[in-house]
Design brief:
Layout (H helix, E strand, L loop, with lengths): L8 H5 L3 H17 L11 H10 L10 E5 L7 H7 L4 E6 L2 H14 L3 E5 L5 H7 L2 E7 L4 H8 L3 E10 L4 H14 L2 E9 L8 E8 L2 H14 L1
Parallel strand pairs: 1-2, 1-4, 2-3, 4-5
Antiparallel strand pairs: 5-7, 6-7
Length: 225
């Protein structure tokens, strides 16, 4: 199935727009057939999914290590990796059939992206994949649970980018204390893609506390006594 490229795509994907187009074709065909994305999404893949994912790159520094938690169909991780080949991207997914899909997509598109089968809360996953600069999440879990899963995967001062949409304020007001208890030092709501996607993407940004730095400072102080 040939899916039409939206006019905003070249601004985000540049000369890799054909790669993004191939990904859209895979979502609209085998992605729907295999249940990784709903059939109603076929007509809005670019605006609702690919562009909305790629604009998240506005919040990601060059050369960052990024983990896409609960990647599912590959959103937002795959569009972000296509638009930003400078990133070191890991797609983390707990469902085996979705892991198989992600591996096939990465191979088909020729992306330098790792796919990991596991759960964010598993100690082995945290040991293997910890110290990320950024964790992204889209439609994965409520913010309080998401913070408990994501923050341990981040390096000190790393950031969770939680795509939350129109209910971001309500969710943040409800869960702010849980986020802080999980190690969130700073929390904000920002918009991405203001001139590209409508409405703009709304993201809750949670910065992990510099816990390890604090522990190191305390250890040095004890040693000096």
């Amino acid at each position: 199935m040939k899916h039409p490229v939206t006019g905003a795509a070249p601004a985000l994907f540049g000369d890799r727009t054909p790669v993004a187009e191939r990904y859209a074709e895979m979502l609209a065909g085998p992605g729907i057939e295999r249940g990784v994305i709903g059939p109603r999404e076929a007509g809005r893949l670019w605006d609702r999914h690919l562009l909305n994912s790629a604009v998240l790159g506005e919040l990601v520094a060059a050369g960052s290590r990024v983990l896409d938690l609960g990647s599912g169909a590959g959103l937002p991780g795959i569009p972000l990796a296509i638009a930003r080949p400078d990133l070191t991207m890991v797609l983390l997914e707990s469902m085996a059939r979705r892991v198989a899909w992600l591996q096939e997509v990465v191979a088909e598109l020729g992306l330098a992206v790792s796919v990991c089968h596991g759960r964010a809360e598993d100690p082995a996953v945290r040991a293997e994949l910890g110290d990320q600069d950024v964790v992204t999440a889209r439609a994965v879990a409520p913010l309080d649970r998401l913070a408990r899963w994501a923050l341990p995967l981040l390096a000190p001062n790393g950031r969770l980018l939680a795509v939350k949409g129109a209910t971001a304020e309500q969710e943040l007001a409800r869960d702010i204390e849980s986020v802080r208890a999980a190690g969130g030092a700073a929390v904000d709501i920002v918009q991405c893609g203001v001139t590209i996607v409508h409405p703009p993407l709304r993201v809750i940004v949670v910065t992990r506390a510099a816990q390890r730095v604090m522990r190191s400072a305390k250890a040095r102080k004890r040693k000096d006594r």
